[in-house]
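Reproducibility note. Readers wishing to regenerate the assembly model reported in the main text can use the exact inputs given here. Chain order matters: entities are listed in the order in which they were concatenated for prediction.
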Amino acid sequence: MTIAIHSHQAAPLLQLLHVSISPKKAPTRLLVNDVSFSIAAGKTTCVVGESGSGKSLTALSVMGLLSKQLQLNSGKVLFNTPNSGVQDLCLLDEVSLQKIRGAKIAMIFQEPMTSLNPVLTVGYQIGESLTAHLGLKGEGLKAKIADLLEMVGILPSRANSYPDELSGGQRQRVMIAMSIACEPLLLIADEPTTALDVTVQAQILKLLDDLKTRMNMGMLFITHDFGVVADIADNVVVMFRGEIVESGTKEEVLGNPQHLYTKALLACVPDAEGIKQLKPIDYAWLNKGEAA
Amino acid sequence: MSNVSPPVILQANHLVKTYTQRSGKFGFGTALVRALDNVSISLTEGKTLAVVGESGSGKSTLARCLLQLQPLDSGEVLFAGQDLARLEGAALRSVRKNLQMVFQDPFASLNPRMRVGEIVGEGLLIHQLGTASEQQQKVMAMLKRVGLTEADMQKYPHEFSGGQRQRVGIARALVLQPKVVVCDEPVSALDVSIQAQILLLLKELQAEMALSYVFISHDLRVVRHIADDIVVMHQGKVVEQGSVVDIYTQPQHEYTRHLLAAIPGKKSVSKKADNA
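Running the prediction on these inputs yields the following structure tokens for the assembly.
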């Protein structure tokens, strides 16, 4: 069942087409409005935006994990696997989705403490998806868990530790070990380093980038930090108030931004040299600029 | 007068603070954690001193100990010729008017049951500065200065966004016209666009009110923009201190170099600066 090389390259690994999301009670209030982009295997697409821009909702819609109060108004989420070809994830039932979640698409969340169960050992939690999706048990399972921990830079003996015995960076490494356990084709990371120190952040970013290359995973990386984008992205999607205002390669978007909002957002980011004059976003001016 | 070094407004000498931590099986053992291990800093009048370090480095403990929000084990904090560590009760309270704090989390640091007008005016009430109507006027002027409106006085904290709440936190600290403001990660919970607004506001207010800042942060990009001097902390010790330019261009200590190397997007950001 393990998929070593993901060879189906004709269609992109993941393609979002005209995805719109709204609250069920107010179908006209679009929280995500006509969002389309794609991710290739072995590449990282960063979705950047302020809080409330719809970047996390977009990620959750890929996993079919939207809150019950929200609905997908329209759009397709096309996922391309070597075994089943191109599937629209929005049309799958819960049982089929469960087979994909954790096995083919995995997710890492922002807060490593709240996303781990405090009363189970980290080894057990890493093993859960291996048992569920690959049917691993006993010694085989133990060996695989040890392998995974080693891969993310944690001593295999820590499999018996509980989450509170680990530091924030170690917990995030455990989360990463869990997410890559079944060698997913696509990894969704929702601000995985926001809660971490800069030095730990640098380690985790490097680890994710290495794993992406080694396993040829596609990565959907959500962040609000342009510094992180510059380090990890191949492609960038900039979201503002639920819409994509600009997308392109990292060099295009960061080096030569076209949209007013992207320019304004970049002007807010402090640089390490202290050369740049910080300029907060003038939303009134931005609205006028959009209307013009 | 130009060769006279500028006056130091706040000086901390040899601060030591230890915490006891439960350890061992079932927490029966105890271990001592040295949160501050012989830390000395000095803040120049009208300048910003940044304290940087990772979590657990003792930077927040330093902030609280400077304002005597936590008792020190030993050491002295000198402000206007007085050792704050030796002051108690009313004497300490009257000095504290000059030393205020802006906290990290604008959600947790404002009382949800008080109106913004009451939150900002509470310090004036405690220090009995002026009549009720004068206090009212001061609160109103301060809120306007930080970019809020008169109507906001009647609102509760939950009615505001994160950036607006941080503005309330700043107004609360500044309404007493302090000399020194300790800012403990004031922008790390905010979006990057809001962060830029708050940083610029803090800079403007510093110039207007002749404030001296102690600025605690783990974000070296933010620090580069706001600080004049930097103290780098690691495991409760000061490993390096100096001017911003010196530390960023010629870091001496290995840990400082390690921190600077970890700044995300360093390469491409500098590339952009070259293009501009």
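We highlight two features of this model. The longest helix of chain A spans residues 198-215. Residues 1-9 of chain A have pLDDT under 50 and may be disordered.
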